[in-house]
Design brief:
single chain, about 375 residues, alpha/beta, three-stranded antiparallel sheet, 12 strands, globular, binds pyridoxal-5'-phosphate
């Protein structure tokens, strides 16, 4: 049996969603924009999910827009928000990096610390030097390869001093693991995705506060034009089932306290790794989201993709970096751009793999993985 340790790439659909899946399939199939009773039922299903997210994230329901996923949400915001300067980090997910470049706005790339976290002093300096410009800051809440958490609150506080600032954050890896209070944060926009939290693929959200909505609508900027769904920002018949399951996935995670379980597994994994002679964590003792480990085997000569394949032969799914990088061939050719941006030596980065846990893993699986890693270290020892 395969053990799945690649939960930062995607997660298994929560088996507890199955009943809801079949119920929705049977009972809520109509077009949510039809005015008959079945249509109204579908619309109500979407609006209930929207209300749930508004309550969960502490914002207004009409600030939540459902999309096909976080790539879409990030693309829309980064490419359409009218600004003179984008400030972001080279450790963002590729959908933010590529959208920022595609926007053709000038970009300031922030330097990072060894955990791929942005440099606040530099951020404030750039903002103060560009006071007269409209600035968009886009920094992820938690990094998908190394798990580090960025202080987004501190960026949002700068808005009190600099009125020209808009703050967006990719919250994909943070959702459901860290409490996100958007009102308290006073953030302008966030993105999130269902398939990272045991929800279905192909559904996500974009939060836009009133201020950013105002600027986008003033310029008549919509992601998809058509029937005017999602307040005109994203036309097209909504994915009723996906949206409802997205909300339900969070509700189940709260009821079953999944995040606590991942915290416990994180501690178990971390203690084992720190006690091991061969395993070196690239992200050891600092504030990170639970469940993401970036590590290498000190005495093993295998490169990261060779190690991933060897682990696969032993029935463990792990990753050599962001799943999206592998589509571009990056994962096969070069070391992770996130690790490089964090200043990790190339000889280490090219050996480093990501292991990401979920509440569906257990300590026995972790023990088995460690045994196999030990075996591989011995079989493929550096000379
Ligand atoms: N942002 C981060 C941090 C991610 O980890 C991912 C998924 O790989 C995405 C964005 C893209 O999300 P989606 O697959 O929903 O487009």
């Amino acid at each position: 049996m395969t053990t799945y340790f690649d939960n930062a790439a995607t997660t298994i659909l929560d088996p507890a969603l199955q009943d809801e899946f079949w119920r929705l399939n049977q009972e809520v199939f109509a077009n949510p924009n039809s005015i008959h009773s079945e249509g109204k039922k579908a619309k109500k299903t979407i609006e209930n999910a929207r209300d749930f997210f508004a309550q969960y994230l502490n914002c207004q329901s009409n600030e939540i827009f459902f999309t096909s996923g976080a790539s879409e949400s990030n693309n829309f915001f980064l490419k359409s928000y009218p600004c003179d300067l984008v400030i972001t980090s080279p450790a963002e997910h590729s959908c933010v990096l590529e959208s920022a470049k595609a926007s053709k706005n000038p970009i300031h790339w922030l330097s990072l610390d060894k955990h791929a976290r942005y440099n606040f002093a530099e951020l404030e300096k750039v903002i103060s030097e560009n006071k007269d410009k409209k600035i968009l800051v886009s920094i992820m809440f938690a990094n998908n390869e190394i798990g580090s958490i960025n202080d987004i609150q501190k960026i949002c506080e700068l808005k009190k001093k600099y009125a020209n600032l808009i703050v967006h954050s990719d919250c994909v890896q943070a959702l459901s693991k860290i409490k996100l209070d958007l009102h308290k944060l006073d953030i302008d926009s966030i993105s999130a995705s269902a398939h990272k939290i045991h929800g279905p693929k192909g559904v996500g959200l974009l939060y836009l506060n009133k201020k950013s909505q105002g600027i986008l609508s003033l310029k008549n900027l919509a992601l998809i034009h058509g029937g005017g769904q999602e307040q005109g920002f994203r036309s097209g018949t909504q994915n009723v089932m996906g949206i409802a399951l997205f909300a339900k996935a969070i509700q189940i995670a709260l009821e079953k306290n999944y995040s606590q379980k991942v915290y416990e597994l994180d501690k178990y994994f971390s203690d084992k790794a720190l006690a091991s002679e061969d395993i070196v964590l690239n992200n050891p003792s600092f504030d990170k989201i639970p469940g993401i480990f970036n590590l290498y085997l000190k005495n093993c000569k295998l490169k990261k993709e060779e190690l991933v394949l060897q682990l696969d032969l032993n029935n463990f799914c792990v990753s050599s970096g962001s799943a999206c990088s592998s589509l571009k061939g990056d994962a096969q050719i070069i070391s992770s751009y996130v690790l490089r941006a964090a200043g990790i030596e190339n000889t280490i980065a090219e050996k480093s793999i990501r292991i990401s846990l979920s509440s569906f893993n257990n300590t026995q699986e972790i023990d088995n993985l460690f045994k196999i890693m030990q075996k591989l270290s011995a079989n493929f020892a550096t000379l």
